[in-house]
Amino acid sequence: MAIYKQDGGAMQSAIAQAVKTLSLALVRDQLMVTTAESCTGGMVSEALTQLPGSSVWFERAFITYSNDAKTEMLGVKSTTLMTHGAVSAACVEEMAIGSLQQSHAQLSVAISGIAGPDGGSQAKPVGTVWIAWAGHHMSVVSRLFHFTGDRRSIREQATLAALNGMIERLHHRTE
After folding, report:
1. Is 54:61 a contact under the CB 8 Å cutoff?
2. Which H or E run contains 172?
3. Count of other CB atoms within 10 angstroms of residue 21
4. Is the dihedral of CA 33, 108, 15, 164 positive or negative?
5. What is the pTM of this model?
6. How far is CA 142 from CA 52, 101, 112, in A?
7. Which contacts of 141-148 are long-range, i.e. CB under 8 A and separated by 24 or more positions?
8. What are the sequence ranges of the domains in the chain?
9. What CATH class does 2-174 carry?
C-alpha cells in the first residue's frame, strides 16, 4: 500500500504521531492495548513504549515469531496454521483474540507477514502482511496489505498500518 511508503525520517515521524493520537484516544476511553506481533518482531510495541506514560494504556506484548509461539501463547489452532498458514486472516484474527484473552487489555492488534528478503512465494510474496484488530465489544477486523521496499521498510509500514488501524477502531467505537 503506497500510502505508507515514506523515507525513514518521515516514516518515524508518522509512527510517532500515530502513537500520540492513539494514546490520547486510549486515555480518553480509559482503555489498554496489547499487541501480538510476528513479522514486526516487537516494532509496534517498541513504538508504543517510546512515548512517556505509555504504562497507563499499554498492557503487554506477545512476540510470537514461530508457529509454536502462536499456538502456545495465543491459542492459535494448529489446524488454522496447517490450513491457512501463519500469514493469513484466520491466523491474525486468532492472534488478536488470543492476545485479548491472555491480557487485561480491551484492544488488540495482531500482525503476521513476510518481511523478506526471503520467504515469499508466488501466492504470498515478500511484503504480504495480514493485520487484525480486536476489542471488547468490537468485532474482529482483518486486512491484507502488500507493502514494498526492504525488510525494515516493510516492517515500518506494517507498524504504521497497525497503529492507524487501532485509531480507526477507536474512532468507529465512539460513533
Report:
1. no
2. helix 151-174
3. 16
4. negative
5. 0.94
6. 29, 18, 11
7. 141/165, 141/169, 142/89, 142/92, 142/93, 142/96, 144/89, 145/1, 145/4, 145/113, 146/1, 147/1, 147/4, 147/5, 147/113, 148/2, 148/5
8. 2-174
9. alpha beta
131, 143 contact by CB (below 8 A)? yes
Residue range 70-89, pLDDT digits in tens: 999 999 999 999 999 999 99
* Tens digit of each residue's pLDDT (9 = 90 or more) over 10-51: 999 999 999 999 999 999 999 999 999 999 999 999 999 999
> CA-to-CA distance for 119 and 140, rounded, in angstroms?
27
Please state the length of the chain: 175
Q: Do 167 and 22 contact (CB within 8 A), yes or no? A: yes
SS3 percent helix, strand, coil of the chain, rounded to 5, is 50, 20, 30
**Are 112 and 150 within 8 A, CB to CB?**
no
Which tens digit of pLDDT belongs to each residue from 96-145?
A: 999 999 999 999 999 999 999 999 999 999 999 999 999 998 999 999 99
